């Protein structure tokens, strides 16, 4: 929901840095550094070191934005780069909430909320990835639309920006993750239904 609104700010912030980096900095290397940072955030959360995990999570998001900016600045945008970027995102999105719950004293409500959260991610991924494949087949994908992303993603309540904010809240208030995870899972479910309604109108 906020992604399109915040993209100009993101571009103004990251594009000058991307141009300043030398040609030796490959965007795929930044993607892998971002993945490492995300997994480090998960490990810190598992150990209960939430402030440090929050800082490394922010680093992960910074690198996740910088890799695309470098790819565009250097003319190195590739399908493989887009693929590993989204794959790394999904690994980190699953690892951090799982680590928070696994690192806490046993709480049945937290485990149930974690299952609901990860389940909502699974359904959401299917909802937009298969839709993106259909749009590509129909010539209405990212290239035809002029999107900066590798694949197109019809907008919904929850996008990348909302996920960044949610994970900041998770790491700042780990004692409330049962309620927070359940609420975010509900918001993701709303997004799935929004895309389903979009597909019903447009396919």
Features:
mainly alpha, 203 residues, Four Helix Bundle (Hemerythrin (Met), subunit A)
Characterize the structure shown.
- The chain is mostly helical.
- It has one domain: Four Helix Bundle (Hemerythrin (Met), subunit A) (Up-down Bundle).
- It has helices spanning 3-20, 27-46, 50-74, 79-102, 108-137, 142-145, 160-172, 177-202.
- Helix 2 (27-46) packs parallel to helix 4.
- The longest helix is centred in the middle third of the chain and has 30 residues, at 108-137.
- The two termini are 22 Å apart.
- The model has no long low-confidence stretch (mean pLDDT 89).
Give the helices and strands, then pairings.
Blueprint: H1 3-20, H2 27-46, H3 50-74, H4 79-102, H5 108-137, H6 142-145, H7 160-172, H8 177-202
């Amino acid at each position: 929901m906020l992604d399109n609104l915040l993209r100009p700010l993101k571009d103004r912030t990251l594009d000058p840095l991307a141009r300043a980096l030398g040609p030796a900095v490959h965007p795929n290397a930044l993607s892998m550094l971002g993945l490492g940072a995300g997994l480090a955030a998960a490990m810190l959360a598992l150990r209960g070191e939430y402030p440090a995990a929050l800082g490394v999570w922010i680093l992960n998001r910074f690198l996740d934005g910088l890799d695309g900016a470098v790819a565009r600045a250097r003319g190195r945008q590739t399908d493989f780069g887009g693929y590993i970027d989204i794959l790394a995102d999904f690994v980190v999105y699953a690892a951090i909430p799982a680590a928070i719950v696994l690192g806490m004293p046993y709480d049945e409500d937290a485990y149930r909320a974690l299952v609901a959260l990860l389940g909502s991610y699974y359904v959401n991924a299917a909802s937009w990835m298969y839709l993106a494949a259909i749009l590509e087949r129909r010539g209405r994908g990212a290239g035809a639309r002029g999107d900066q992303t590798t694949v197109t993603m019809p907008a919904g309540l929850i996008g990348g920006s909302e996920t960044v904010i949610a994970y900041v809240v998770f790491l700042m208030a780990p004692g409330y993750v049962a309620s927070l995870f359940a609420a975010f899972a509900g918001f993701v479910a709303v997004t799935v239904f929004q895309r389903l309604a979009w597909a019903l109108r447009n396919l």
